[in-house]
Backbone:
């Protein structure tokens, strides 16, 4: 299943724009939470009311294998990408590693200009009070 997810970086979770997220089941519940499978009651925490079904066993087995490989060797993504770019020099400019400092999360009330580069330069300012 593919969809759009949301998240914000924290000390515990280093989430960046463009990250790929893979969910994993736990406690016998499905691993994908749909936003309308819950309710918010005034003055209380959000209460989930259901989950989507679990993925097929073959996918669960593949995720378990990836977890085990990660625990033994780490993700090795940077090494793999570096190796590909080293062998294919023409791809370097198009697929260069983005600067993590350019990844900015604005407060929800910040209004952004229409989608054009000239007006968007205002958002890239150094007003840290509008960033999370």
Residues:
């Amino acid at each position: 299943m593919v969809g759009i997810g949301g998240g914000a970086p924290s000390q515990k979770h280093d989430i960046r724009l463009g990250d790929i997220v893979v969910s994993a089941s736990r406690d016998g519940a499905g691993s994908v939470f749909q936003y309308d499978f819950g309710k918010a009651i005034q003055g209380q925490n959000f209460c989930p009311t259901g989950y989507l079904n679990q993925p097929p066993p073959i996918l669960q087995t593949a995720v378990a294998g990836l977890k085990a490989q990660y625990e033994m060797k780490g993700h090795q993504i940077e090494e793999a990408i570096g190796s590909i770019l080293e062998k294919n020099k023409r791809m370097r400019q198009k697929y260069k590693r983005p600067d993590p400092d350019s990844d900015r999360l604005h407060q929800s009330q910040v209004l952004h200009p229409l989608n054009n580069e000239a007006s968007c330069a205002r958002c890239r300012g150094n007003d840290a009070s509008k960033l999370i």
Notes: Residues 100-132 form one domain. The chain has a mean pLDDT of 76. The beta strands are 38-39, 47-48.
